[in-house]
Amino acid sequence: LSSIRVLTNATKYSDVVEKGIKEGKVNIVVSVDSGTKDMFIKVKRFDFYDKVWENIEKYARVQPVNDCVKTKFILIPEVNDTKEEINAWIEKSISAGVKYLAFDIEMMWYNKNSEHLPDSLFEIVQYAFDTINEYGLNVELIDRGVIVSDILKSR
Predict the structure, then answer these.
(1) What is the per-residue burial (b if ≥16 Cβ within 10 Å, else e) of 124-139?
(2) What is the 3-state secondary structure (H, E, C) of the chain?
(3) Per-residue confidence (pLDDT) for residue 142, from 0 to 100
(4) Which of 10, 100, 117, 120 is 20 to 30 A from 16, alpha carbon to alpha carbon?
(5) At what angle do helices 49-62 and 15-22 cross, to 10 degrees?
(6) Which residues contact 117 (CB under 8 A, 6 or more apart)?
(7) 130 near 87, Cβ under 8 Å?
């Protein structure tokens, strides 16, 4: 039996999810989309930053392997697309015990701009990939993250 993937905002802690993670039957992806509290509030429009990271850390402590708990960064150009946010996300993930990250690009922005993606997008995405690799972490590219990665490889 393969594991069940749970997409969560981690605002509430679930003992059932914890049990599934411990048993290796559940993996979770928490889309934090920021590294700093101010950006979290700006993107998510609610102030659960500390609670979310506390819950991520609790889940990460019980994972039997490093890929059961992932934090995801959905890059939103001209909102959270800074080196500072990416660095803060990576460092916060590491401090919470997360070793596996997920990366995507915001869908509505991408769909609107897919014919003429700016160089700045490729530069910040390359920076994110390089920094994740420097820390020795794994990354799962999701949807538009895969497309942009493929374009980067062909450049």
Answers:
(1) bbeebbebbeeeebeb
(2) CCCEEEEECCCCCCHHHHHHHHCCCEEEEEECCCCCHHHHHHHHCCCCHHHHHHHHHHHHHHCCCCCCEEEEEEECCCCCCCHHHHHHHHHHHHHCCCCEEEEEECHHHHHHHHHHCCHHHHHHHHHHHHHHHHCCCEEEECCHHHHHHHHHHHC
(3) 84
(4) 100
(5) 30
(6) 148, 151
(7) no
For the chain, how many residues are written? 155
Residue with tokens 């990665």: 149
- For residue 99, give both structure tokens: 């070793």
pLDDT tens readout for residues 59-106: 999 998 878 999 999 999 999 999 999 999 999 999 999 999 999 999
Amino acid making up residue 106: E
Average pLDDT over the chain reads 93
